[in-house]
Write the structure tokens for this entry.
Amino acid sequence: MSNNSRPDGAVQYLTVSVAGQTLGIPVLQVDDVLGPQRITRVPLAPPAVLGSLNMRGHIVTAVDVRRTLGFAAAETSARMCVVVEHKNELYSLTVDSVGEVMSLSAGELAPTPITVAPVWREVSKGIYRTPEQLLIILDVDRLLAGLAQQDKAATTQALAA
């Protein structure tokens, strides 16, 4: 049984929306959900890093999920933040909206089909087909690893200039 599973075999996911796509983040990876926050810019940070915020005395890196995935920045600043831990650091994943917590059967998680856009396949652990939508399960580790690659590229460009 995975650490996201309940004894009945259900796995709980927090649903979020990014660029019109609904994603699921395993509830056990979520530390907090925050409304719009005051974010302090960080000089020379990659474009996807919005800056940092203070969450009860902890410095949290704010990451724009849209920009991490190559989408344009959102037109509104009233976006939600989902705080997760990655490699012992806190990250605030800025998303367009936060939905509900869904309990889904672990056995119904399907591999991400080839028909799903590459941008989503790269950060997906799999999908659930619900009656209303296709729910892509976000692999937070891969999403943030992609951010680290962007950071290395930005640093290389800054040093070459």
About this structure: The chain has a mean pLDDT of 87. The radius of gyration is 16 Å. The helical segments are 65-68, 118-121, 140-160. The longest helix spans residues 140-160.
